[in-house]
Amino acid sequence: MFPKPISLFKTDDVIWSFDFINDSEFLITERSGKLIHFNKKTSKKTNLNVPKVSASGQGGLLDVHLKKINNTNYIYITFSQKHLGSLTTVLARAKFSGPKQLDWEVLFRAKVKSNSSVHFGSRIVFVDNHLFMTIGDRGKRKLAQDLSLHQGKILRLTLNGKAPKDNPFINIKNAQPEIWSYGHRNPQGIIYDNQSKTLYSTEFGPRGGDELNIIKKGKNYGWPLISYGSEYWGPKIGKIKMDGMEQPITYWVPSISPSGLAFYNNSLYIANLSSEHIRKVNIKNKVVTGQSKLFESLEQRIRHVKISKDKKLYFSTDEGHLYRAEL
Fold first, then answer.
1. What confidence score (pLDDT) does residue 260 get?
2. Which of 3.90.550.10, 3.40.50.960, 2.40.40.20, 2.120.10.30 would CATH assign to domain 82-88+111-326?
3. Could you give the residue numbers annotated as active site?
């Protein structure tokens, strides 16, 4: 039984993401476009400058990570922005040495065909000297199978936002070289288990069919040709299985709306929106062995979850709370 979580921070906006600077300082993104430096010891909040953000629908200022590279701290952010007639997802970074003016460098803009304001995906995770970045199908489901575009894909980039030379589609004509896997609907959670060398991702289905996947190089995850979900008005979408397409290690019908993802002690912790809980998923040898629900009594849409270095569970909500709980 987990103790009642403690609210550390409150705002009126969706806290889409957060990261730890140290034991007392945080970086927090509000979807409407604010990047906040928060000191929990002093309760001081400082707004940091960010690039121009197009906050619309599910878009806005999205993920944030602090990454040390050659003894220099960088803030990485993802956000939605109008570019060349489309609303797309952007990756940028800035050197960070405290709560002061930041000099941002745009590293990557996704090539998409959509003016929709849904399904940005937009989580990132660092693995060795690379980062993985998720991009949703942007409401254009068939384009998740189109390798000439980034939507509906998980990307693998260098720390400078370039395509590594060993990416799976780098020598395929007209394919975007940054693509690592494809056939995704809206992957909004991604985490790497260093011990088993496994990359996990959570993905929103339509009506049902939310997925937990193990992400592998060059693989097709099927959307919209295969799905365990249905159209919102009733009929099934595509098939359940097809040759050459990956199956989730588990899925949920009805939907739980899985967002951010963390890994600790052979368990995945999944932040869930519509079902308003954290789902603890036990893993053994890359197989799901059990599940349980945490923090349902809060009755809040849980957007993101992380484990701190001192093994505390932190999570944020669409109602604007940043919570801490004991593991």
1. 98
2. 2.120.10.30
3. 119
